[in-house]
Amino acid sequence: DWNPGNVIAEQVARIREQVGGARVISALSGGVDSAVSTALVHEAIGDQLTAVFVDHGLLRKGEREQVERDYVASTGVHLITVDAADTFLGHLAGVTDPEEKRKIIGREFIRAFEQVQRDLVAEAKAEGEQVKFLVQGTLYPDVVESGGGAGTANIKSHHNVGGLPDDLDFELIEPLRALFKDEVRAIGRELGIPEAIVGRQPFPGPGLGIRIVGEVTRERLEVLREADAIAREELTLAGLDAEIWQCPVVLLADVRSVGVQGDGRTYGHPIVLRPVSSEDAMTADWTRVPYEVLARISNRITNQVPEVNRVVLDVTSKPPGTIEWE
Ligand code: XMP
């Protein structure tokens, strides 16, 4: 019988054997796979593990706190947060092409992570220890998709923001390699990781950076972050989290339309809601969210986010539309 407790016990023993006394690092993204693989390795080797979380400034409201406070409180993982928003936003200035944004964000993520890595390696050396291992949250479907070879997971460039270049001198620890997503979630719950993290819907590595159509700026991120938080809250309150695979909220930053808000004419931006139902993100259909729920989201966003004067619903399936707008 499959049960999460057995898998944990088995993996803990294997990880201890693989690692010995060496030090290990892990990149946390805020997503389910990295959260669970990191917690599992922590269960095995405690403070020999250092987790690294890069705040690229493209996170949703509350995400950083969720990792720094709730995840750390529930797992005891030793965490380093890299404050990299200024660097990321600096490199994104003036960039509007979606693939260009992805490339920059991916590159800067690796730079930020490598910096911490160098610091940790230097620190360990000074103490006569070694940092030899890197945790990866590779799942079974990733292994299959990438041809199955050891260490070849995470090659989908599309999903590679949390992935790392292969010229690094690290041995990988991939405790989730034989598992499917629902099994990973069960293990995460067994390890006491908060439901908000374990049950989280997919969120792209480049974050809100690919949900602003147009240049990414601090002000625009703030607008999108507020609108996204309202939409997420209302969808959850309406009990739709199980039905919705994910719901990108997109700011059309270069589009303006005339509106009337309060006692005056406005010239604001539209927000797009993109709720989709899907099995695996390869194909998707738009979710028939009840009108009352859409009405609440629209009212709240246009009342509470002054820069937004219009909320529109994306009713396109995938294909032809992708889930994200960029
Ligand atoms: P699309 O937009 O291609 O998205 O239908 C399919 C799934 O992939 C996610 N996605 C990404 N994830 N880095 C990621 O880590 C990316 O650059 C990226 N682009 C899309 C998207 O959220 C959806 O779940």
UniProtKB/TrEMBL annotation:
Pathway(s) the chain acts in: Purine metabolism; GMP biosynthesis; GMP from XMP (L-Gln route): step 1/1
Highest taxon of the lineage: Bacteria
GO MF terms, alphabetically ordered: ATP binding; GMP synthase activity
GO cellular component entries: cytosol
Enzyme class (EC, first level): ligase
Residues in GMPS ATP-PPase domain copies: 2-200
Catalytic activity: XMP + L-glutamine + ATP + H2O = GMP + L-glutamate + AMP + diphosphate + 2 H(+)
EC number, UniProt record: 6.3.5.2
Residues that hold ATP according to the record: 29-35
Keywords, ordered alphabetically: ATP-binding, Glutamine amidotransferase, GMP biosynthesis, Ligase, Nucleotide-binding, Purine biosynthesis
Biological function: Catalyzes the synthesis of GMP from XMP.
Subunit organization: Homodimer.
Protein name: GMP synthase [glutamine-hydrolyzing]
Species this protein is from: Leucobacter massiliensis
Full-protein residues shown: 202 to 527 of 527
